[in-house]
Structure formats: C-alpha cells, structure tokens
C-alpha cells in the first residue's frame, strides 16, 4: 500500500542518495529530518541516527516515525533507536516504517513498533512462565485440585534465587509431602553460584551442583531443608528423567507434583514431565513473574525480583525457548528431537517472537553440547 503521512507525526527519512529528498523536488513529501545512509562506518552512522531521533523526540511529545528504505538496514536502525548493548533504551515512542520506492511512489513493506518491545517480552514471559495457581497455598490447591498437599514439590536448579525463596515458603506452609531439589551443573550453574556468593558471603558455592547451592541457601537463610537432592542432571530433559528415577528408587508415591523452575523454562519443564510421566497431575508454579516496562528511555522490570537475570540475559533465555517449544523438525517436540510432549504455540506468541527478532536478531541461547544427556 502507498505510504501516507499522518498529521501530527514527526518523521525522519533514512535513505540513500538515490531515494532521498533533493533540490529538484522541493515538494518532496517525506521527512522532517533527513539522514543519508552510506559512506561511513556503522558506529558513526548509528550515533547520527540516534542523535537525530533524540533531537526530534526532545521537541515532540508525540510519536516519531523513522522511514527506512532498505530492508538490509532495518535491524541497524532498530538497534540505533531501540535496544542497544550499552543499555540505552527507546527514545520517545519511535515507530519504523520500511518503504520500497517503486514507480514514483513509496510502498509500505513493513511496520515495526519498537515501543511494543516490552509488551512482546511480557507475552513470551507469560507463555513460558506457567503458573497454574495464583498463589502456592493449601487453599488454592484444595480449590483447584481437591488436595491440601501435593505428593512432591520440586525446585529445579536452573531457577534464579527467587525459586529458593518459594521452596522455603512452601516447606514452611507444608504445601507438599516431600521436597526435592534437582540440578547438577548446566548453563545457569555458574551464574547461580556467583549470585549466592555475592549476596551471602558465608555460603561457599565453589564446585557445588545447583541442588547443593540451593540446599545450602535455604538451610542458611531459612533454616529448612529438602528431603532429597538430585545432583547429576545437566539439562531440562534429564532434570525430568533423573527426577523420576529418584522417585522410583526411593519408593515415593507421586500422583501430584508441583514443578518450580525458572520462568523462562517452566513451560518446557511441564512438557518434559508430560512426555515421561503423563499420568502424574502437574501443578506448575514458575519461580517468578517478571513484568517489563519502558521507563525513562530504558527497558526495566516493574518491580525487583530476587536474583533476577539482567535484561539482556532474560530476553536471550526467553527467545531461546520458542524454537525449542515449537513442534517442528528443529524443535524439541515429537516432530523434532522428541525431548518433550507437543506444545501449542499461540499466534500471539509467534507474532511477539517474530517482532522481537526484528529488534534483537537471532538472540537465542544455543544448546551447549557439554550439558547434553549422555
């Protein structure tokens, strides 16, 4: 469709010499501000775009539209005015329209709203971070499942420290009959060790498994302990299979189980349990709920979360989950690697993931072969 200027919107035209305003066409309809693309290194160009947007955003409290003529440069512009590695956030309410010059007119090829990035992160966060009850209480379990206690509650060591807080509270409130912490050494282990060591210097974490770190944490901070530790698993897949072996070896009845994992990986943990133990009643309770907002030009969490990932890592973990949960030849479902049960990805989640890729690129965490199941 042809591009039409909207009244009251500031526009910055980003283009080449071949597709730009010129003295021969004083009535050129596009752009309150022109930045020519090409002939300089990326950093200089990025800074120039950023400066132009900042200048207009300072004068205008409304929307700012950036008009882009080259699809190959789209991500470069997004990084300039949106998410940046140095932590600088969005300026104003910047949208981006990609135009293609054809037959003396500009056709709209793509529209991106970077101001929606926080919303898209939250869509992925809610999808990945399943909670089947609002609060982890006996009353909630009784109301939804007809039980006052679950047979087993499991904390998985891939979680941030907030998971330890939830487990300790659950033990205090007698939410389950038995408590297990699962986790050997995997891709999140060193981060967990450092977080605990930095915040609680009296807890030594060097060379400990995730299960051992969390065990020491709840013992030192809350004075409680889990009944069992599984210390050999290295990924979400054998987190589940080794857990089930532990339950069997110790003759632990398990008709109902509460799974508590990092919110980025909770959905995958649920799908793994459904594959290997479909008859067990699963109660999901992700270790936190994060809400991201755009505040003072930055993406930030609306409230503090104990031990929370920095924003870049959180987004990376979330974006890494969608390809894994997608049931195709590349995913972890039955049509792919067959590690987990089928997961249905809602259209809203697919759209959010696609839009985030425009901003962040392929910012997904690749599976580390060092932690693959043997």
UniProtKB/TrEMBL annotation:
Q: What InterPro entries does the database record attribute to this sequence?
A: Cell_Envelope_Assoc, His_Pase_superF_clade-1, His_PPase_superfam, Rossmann-like_a/b/a_fold
This protein's GO CC annotations: plasma membrane
UniProt xrefs under Pfam families: His_Phos_1
Q: Which domain of life is it from?
A: Bacteria
Name the chain's protein.
Answer: YdcF family protein
Per the UniProt entry, what species is this protein from, by scientific name?
[Ruminococcus] lactaris
Q: What is the lineage of its organism?
A: Bacteria, Bacillati, Bacillota, Clostridia, Lachnospirales
């Amino acid at each position: 469709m042809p591009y039409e200027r909207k009244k009251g919107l500031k526009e910055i035209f980003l283009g080449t010499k071949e597709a730009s305003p010129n003295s021969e066409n004083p009535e050129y309809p596009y752009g309150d501000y022109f930045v020519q693309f090409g002939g300089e290194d990326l950093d200089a160009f990025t800074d120039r775009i950023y400066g132009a947007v900042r200048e207009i955003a300072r004068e205008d409290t409304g929307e700012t539209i950036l008009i882009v003529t080259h699809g190959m440069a789209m991500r470069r512009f997004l990084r300039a005015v949106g998410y940046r590695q140095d932590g600088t956030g969005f300026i104003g309410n910047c949208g981006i329209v990609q135009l293609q010059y054809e037959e003396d007119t500009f056709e709209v090829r793509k529209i991106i709203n970077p101001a929606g990035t926080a919303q898209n992160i939250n869509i992925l966060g809610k999808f990945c971070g399943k909670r089947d009850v609002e609060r982890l209480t006996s009353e909630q379990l009784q109301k939804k499942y007809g039980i006052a206690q679950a047979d087993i509650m499991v904390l998985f060591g891939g979680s941030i420290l907030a998971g330890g807080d939830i487990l300790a509270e659950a033990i205090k409130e007698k939410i389950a009959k038995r408590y297990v912490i699962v986790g050997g050494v995997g891709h999140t282990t060193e981060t967990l060790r450092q977080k605990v060591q930095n915040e609680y210097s009296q807890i030594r974490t060097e060379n400990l498994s995730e299960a051992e770190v969390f065990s020491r944490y709840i013992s030192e901070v809350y004075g409680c302990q889990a009944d069992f530790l599984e210390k050999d698993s290295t990924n979400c897949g054998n987190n589940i299979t080794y857990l089930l072996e532990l339950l069997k070896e110790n003759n632990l009845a398990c008709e109902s189980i509460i799974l508590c994992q990092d919110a980025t990986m909770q959905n995958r943990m649920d799908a793994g349990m459904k594959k290997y133990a479909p008859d067990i009643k699963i109660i999901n309770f992700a270790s936190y709920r994060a809400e991201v907002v755009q505040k003072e030009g930055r993406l930030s969490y609306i409230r503090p979360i104990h031990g929370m990932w920095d924003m870049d890592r959180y987004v990376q973990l979330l974006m890494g989950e969608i390809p894994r949960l997608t049931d195709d030849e590349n995913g972890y479902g039955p049509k792919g690697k067959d590690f987990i049960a089928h997961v249905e990805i809602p259209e809203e989640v697919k759209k959010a993931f696609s839009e985030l890729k425009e901003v962040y690129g392929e910012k997904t965490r690749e599976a580390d072969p060092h932690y693959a199941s043997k």
